[in-house]
Design a protein that fits this description.
Largest sheet: 5 strands, parallel
Shape: globular
CATH architecture of the largest domain: 3-Layer(aba) Sandwich
Number of domains: 4
Oligomer: single chain
Protein name: Sigma 54-interacting transcriptional regulator
Distance between the termini: 62 Å
CATH topology of the largest domain: Rossmann fold
InterPro entries: AAA+_ATPase, AAA_lid_NorR, Homeodomain-like_sf, HTH_Fis, P-loop_NTPase, Sigma_54_int, Sigma_54_int_dom_CS, VpsR
Number of helices: 17
Organism: Marinobacter xestospongiae
Pfam family, one: Sigma54_activat
Structural class: alpha/beta
CATH superfamily of the largest domain: P-loop containing nucleotide triphosphate hydrolases
Strand content: 5-15%
Strand order of the largest sheet: 2-1-3-4-5
Number of strands: 12
CATH class of the largest domain: Alpha Beta
Radius of gyration: 24 Å
Helix content: 25-40%
Keywords: ATP-binding, Nucleotide-binding, Transcription, Transcription regulation
């Protein structure tokens, strides 16, 4: 090991606080100015570790801090502070949420170098394991700069700072598991276990004891193994009315199987909105209100088309031969087809089509036929015209405002700052009707 290891130095004054001795000989130091808005294009890829300079910490003087930390994820951070985090609650929360360790001044460079070396080794191991998996966009579900995915990341980051239950709903292939993992990795229990229960695979005669204490080999036993960490209830909307009461025990302050109090952060995912299932009599309201302490809906890929170039780059970078060959690219017709497709399968469909294209194409340039999509000859830009994008934005604005106001047209019009007459015209134009 040596200077080929990347060390990010995130500071409001990196040139002043960055140590020029010792560490510079053993690390490739990358200073990042916290006073500037996030821009990660010049930051080296993973594995990454970093020092978060919190000397003389003042949250009001660091408006970009959380956005930088989210943008640089995944990075393993060591906090550098001039005071004990126990003396300042907000500082302690920040370090506990984002940092794997912290170092109190005066600076002990050998000790800091040792800690960073251990953390970099683990980050490198995890990166190599991830590289061995098939290229997939599911683990990059939250990547991109579109307003919709930026809003999603911001909500997840806010929710992660609490230990309240979070319900994530979204269509198939939108990245619900990636969002759940993001919540865990940025939470106060990030260094605890992350356990998953696939609700669709649970036995039909599910009892409280079977779920909470479970027997080895049943595939139901992740509850107590999640102590001190996060428990993901995957596809919770697949539970039957008879199975659902077993979840109530997760929210009671009762000892676990080993006699200790359960300390578990509950995250649940669903494809069908649970509130709609409650109204239809297919999901118990008492279970729903315990699961849905905080809710977030993941956007469809068709609602974040501007993220596709970023997703393509991430996918091609993850290919096994990416480091040995020139980068793959899409020709103009293929890119146009991607943007005009409606993506019913979301990220999973995009990932599958790209894998198919890589297998079918012997060239570095991928065509529309390789993707299995319908070609759109030049001049046929119906889906990419400015009018089309405006119409799509109008339709989304109408639908969202009606949903937020429970189909109250007057209230929805006020949200959009338009008249009721204009609202009715837009509803008629885009065939948007109250449910």
């Amino acid at each position: 090991m040596g200077a080929d290891r990347t060390l990010l130095w995130l500071s409001p004054d990196p040139e002043q606080s960055l140590p020029s001795l010792t560490l510079a000989d053993r690390w490739h130091l990358v200073p990042i100015d916290l006073n500037q808005p996030p821009n990660v294009r010049s930051v080296p890829p993973v594995p990454r570790v970093g020092v978060l300079d919190l000397q003389n910490y003042d949250s009001e003087r660091l408006p970009w801090l959380e956005e930088w930390l989210v943008a640089l994820s995944p990075t393993t951070w060591v906090g550098l502070t001039s005071q004990s985090p126990y003396d300042e609650p907000s500082l302690g929360t920040l370090i506990g949420t984002y940092c794997a360790d912290y170092h109190t001044l005066p600076l002990d460079l050998p000790r800091l170098d040792t800690v960073l070396g251990h953390l970099w080794g683990m980050a490198d191991l995890q990166a190599r394991l991830a590289e061995g998996h098939k290229a997939s966009l599911q683990r990059h579900a939250l990547a991109g700069d579109s307003p919709r995915i930026h809003q999603t990341r911001t909500l997840l980051q806010r929710f992660a700072q609490t230990l309240e239950p979070v319900l994530i709903h979204g269509a198939s292939g939108t990245g619900k598991e990636a969002a759940a993992r993001f919540l865990h990795d940025h939470s106060p229990v990030s260094h605890g276990p992350f356990a998953t229960i696939n609700c669709a695979a649970l036995p039909s005669s599910l009892s409280d004891d079977a779920l909470l204490e479970h027997e080895p080999g049943t595939g139901v036993g992740s509850v107590d193994s999640a102590h001190g960490g996060s428990l993901l209830l995957q596809a919770v909307d697949e539970l039957t009315l008879e199975q659902q009461p077993a979840l109530l025990g997760l929210f009671q302050d009762e000892p676990g199987a080993a006699g200790h109090q359960r300390d578990i952060r509950i995250i649940a995912t669903c494809t069908h909105p649970l509130d709609a299932l409650v109204r239809a009599g297919r999901f118990r309201s008492d279970v729903y209100y315990r699961l849905a302490g905080l809710e977030i809906q993941l956007p469809l890929l068709s609602e974040r088309l501007e993220d596709i170039p970023t997703l393509l780059e991430l996918f091609f970078d993850a290919l096994p031969d990416a480091r040995r060959h020139p980068p793959r690219r899409l020709d103009e017709s293929a890119m146009r087809a991607l943007l005009l497709h409606d993506w019913p399968g979301n990220l999973r469909e995009l990932s599958n089509r790209l894998r198919q294209a890589v297998l079918l194409s012997d060239r570095r340039t991928i065509s529309t036929n390789d993707l299995g999509l319908t070609p759109h000859p030049p001049g046929q830009y119906e889906g990419l015209s400015l009018d089309q994008f405006r119409a799509r934005a109008e339709q989304q604005a109408v639908s969202c405002s009606l949903a937020l106001t429970h189909n109250n047209v007057s209230a929805a019009a006020r949200l959009l700052d338009i008249s009721r007459v204009s609202m009715y015209r837009l509803m008629e134009k885009h065939r948007t009707y109250r449910g």
